[in-house]
Amino acid sequence: MEKKLSELLKSVKATVTGNTDISITGVQSDSRKVKCNNLFVAIKGTTVDGHKYIEDVIEKGAAAIVCQELPEIINPNVTYAVVKNSASALGFLASQWWDNPSRKLTLVGVTGTNGKTTMATLLYEMARLMGYKAGLLSTVCNYVDTMAVEATQTTPDQLTINNLLNQMVEAGCKYAFMEVSSHAADQCRIDGLKFAGGVFSNLTRDHLDYHKTVENYLKAKKRFFDILPAGAFALVNADDKAGMVMLQNTKANKKTYSLRQLADFKGKILESRLNGTLLSINGTEVEVLFTGGFNAYNLLAVYGASILMGFDADEVIVKMSMLIPVAGRFQTLQSPRGYTAIVDYAHTPDALVNVLDSIKEVLCGKGKIITVVGAGGNRDKGKRPIMAQEAARRSDRVILTSDNPRFEEPEDILADMIAGLDAKMLRRVIKITDRAEAIKAATQFAQMGDVILIAGKGHENYQDVKGVKHHFDDKEQVEAIFEQEKE
Hints:
Blueprint: E1 3-4, H1 5-9, E2 15-17, E3 23-24, E4 26-28, E5 38-41, H2 54-59, E6 64-67, E7 79-82, H3 86-97, E8 106-111, H4 116-129, E9 134-137, E10 141-144, E11 147-150, H5 158-170, E12 175-179, H6 182-186, E13 197-200, H7 208-211, H8 214-226, E14 233-237, H9 243-246, E15 253-258, E16 265-273, E17 276-281, E18 284-288, H10 293-308, H11 313-320, E19 331-334, E20 340-344, H12 349-363, E21 369-373, H13 383-394, E22 397-400, H14 410-418, H15 423-426, E23 429-431, H16 435-445, E24 451-455, E25 462-465, E26 468-471, H17 474-486
Parallel strand pairs: 4-5, 5-6, 6-7, 8-12, 8-13, 9-12, 13-14, 14-15, 15-16, 20-24, 21-22, 21-24, 22-23
Antiparallel strand pairs: 1-3, 2-7, 9-10, 10-11, 16-17, 17-18, 19-20, 25-26
């Protein structure tokens, strides 16, 4: 595929030096991938500045450079386009390269601290249950209609997003749903996309290793709603204090959902069990295969977004009873010995509280809660003691263990967690660094009617240790133990 540079540059405001009547064979922001007659976009990243590689990519044959500052040495055979923000420009250039696929789809973005994967995945499933082809960009896996494409991050880079959206268009998809992470919004990875709607779940402490303050984190989430166009919808959780903040500057059609107050989409939990919930949504009852208040919010948002996309309300209610939980999100496994194990991705204090409160509500004191939890290495250290505190407050027994230690020592991470516990809490907490042994110990402690929560990794099938991903799957560990219990 080739495109004229002049056609690509129509999508951005740039000061151009050189000839724009040249053919471009590809757009790249990674200097290692540049080939002859490519357009290279030099981005000032958090760790690497692409401007340092301009001379290198020209030697590789790059025909044009998009940058924020002209290099000292100008090559007369190369065209330079200076833009205000090259990361933002990359989004528009990537969209233009792939013929603006987001304009050919009904694209809905989902953001918030918790619930993004569940909401985006259930919206994808809803569209498919309605008889449409759809695509999904999510933490667990990307889908082009039914074709799975491995996901390496919550929101991919600008080039990958537009390539996948283009594949969705070519596959005949009408709808696409994507998680919008705070990193992606802050780094302009969603720029150049045309969204038909945005959904906000909630905002609690997370990613402060990157954003530094909760205010910066909130601003990154809000940026997504700020760029939504008129004609799109902005659906937010009215019960979260950040919900209405998201709507402050948006041009989109403002809508709300709530379990506690008047809203466009009002829900109520009528009955709650470990394997399902009876919900009332806008006065209509529906039995769903999900548990907990946090999932009630997720389902309310899915209902609201489905209606705002134009689906029939009665049909949506019917299809909601057919939706199934996402891998690693409150995934319930039943032991032959009569206790329940739940694998969940909860890796923030708020998510842990939500899951544990939901379990407690269902148990009504008729069983004990055993929680296996750790914290990721090289991430926000401030949440570690809070995670341990919340687990200890809401569990009968807590086993602190390794998560993804990355380049930290697991013992150091656990020491940070234990530092948050008082003497009373410490009495019901033990430390087993080896995650497999920790899960095994939890199953040995469990009696009939008890619930084990294995938190933090959910769908992940690896442990990240010193830059190497070793195979490890919480669900597989539990299932192997259950097989032994049958013998």
